[in-house]
Design brief:
Oligomer: single chain
């Protein structure tokens, strides 16, 4: 059982996050490397700002297990140009952020280390400072290992994002209290696990799957919880969505998840990112976010 006192300290740490002041120079157009200081530590962030357009969104893109943030930034350029969104792809070096910190979000915590998922909230604040546009909606996008990371963010450390898009993750956080953290809420602090679970279900979250992503992943095959979710990423994504929808109905909470299956797409980096359907999904999400100020719920309108 996780230590409730530790989760209280974690919540306090996330609330009192530290972000360096924004730089005096404007974020340049095109590709660049920026520095974010979070909790006193410097993180390289690969950026792209499209030229000659008024920014409409901030796209925080999380790389897969190769941690190649530069490649993911570059792959996202057509998407950024299509929706006029600035891309920030933070670096999570494997030496500093091993599998339990990245794919599992840093949960369950070890040796009082700050979970990597807790960095997302100050990273969002930093992105608003860099663009000097705090009203911009933030969309979190993760592929494979990066999607696993963002699913833990959604479940255990959500921040101020407007939408989370998970592309082809190998595992999910199950919306129930039987499976242990980081695959469920068993072991989460008992005084908040029900609240966290309900918040997780009401997150504006889209699962984006490739129709051909049907190979059994070797790493996930060693994890009993992963195999219980399905034989491959396509099955697990559909299973996770169905389980979440059923649980939301059972708990009588708003269900803001969506699912979309991209045809003729496997697991390779950039496949769904570059696809026309993904650009269309983000474009539609952007328009809905513009309406969000009028009280229209994004998750009830975006459909796969």
């Amino acid at each position: 059982m996780a230590n409730p006192l530790h989760f209280t300290r974690l919540a306090l740490a996330v609330t009192l996050f530290q972000v360096s002041p924004a730089g005096a120079s404007e974020l340049p157009t095109g590709s660049s490397t920026q520095k974010a200081v979070l909790f006193g530590q410097t993180m390289d962030v690969l950026a792209f700002r499209p030229p000659d357009c008024r920014l409409r969104a901030i796209l925080l893109v999380m790389a897969a297990k190769d941690r190649n943030s530069g490649a993911y930034r570059d792959d996202s350029v057509p998407l950024a140009n299509a929706v006029c969104g600035v891309v920030f792809s933070p670096t999570f070096p494997e030496k500093q952020f091993p599998t339990w910190q990245y794919q599992r979000g840093g949960f369950p915590t070890r040796n009082n280390e700050l979970p990597a998922a807790a960095l997302v909230k100050p990273l969002e604040q930093w992105a608003w400072q860099e663009t000097d546009l705090p009203q911009l909606p933030i969309i979190l996008i993760g592929h494979s290992a990066g999607a696993q990371f963002l699913d833990r963010v959604a479940a255990y450390a959500s921040a101020d994002e407007a939408e989370i898009i998970l592309m082809n993750p190998a595992t999910y956080v199950e919306p129930e209290t039987d499976s242990p953290v980081p695959y469920g809420f068993n072991g989460w602090s008992e005084n908040i696990h029900q609240t966290s679970l309900k918040h997780y279900l009401s997150e504006h979250l889209t699962i984006l799957l490739g129709s051909d992503d049907v190979e059994t992943t070797l790493g996930a095959g060693r994890i009993a919880q992963a195999m219980g979710q399905g034989r491959n990423r396509l099955e697990r994504g559909q299973w996770a969505f169905a389980q979440a929808r059923e649980q939301a109905y059972r708990l009588d909470v708003p269900f803001n998840w969506n699912i979309d299956i991209v045809p003729n797409t496997g697991h390779d980096r950039g496949g769904p990112v570059r696809s026309d359907s993904f650009v269309g999904l983000i474009s539609y999400t952007r328009l809905l976010l513009c309406r969000h100020s009028d009280g229209v719920a994004v998750g009830h309108l975006v459909r796969g």
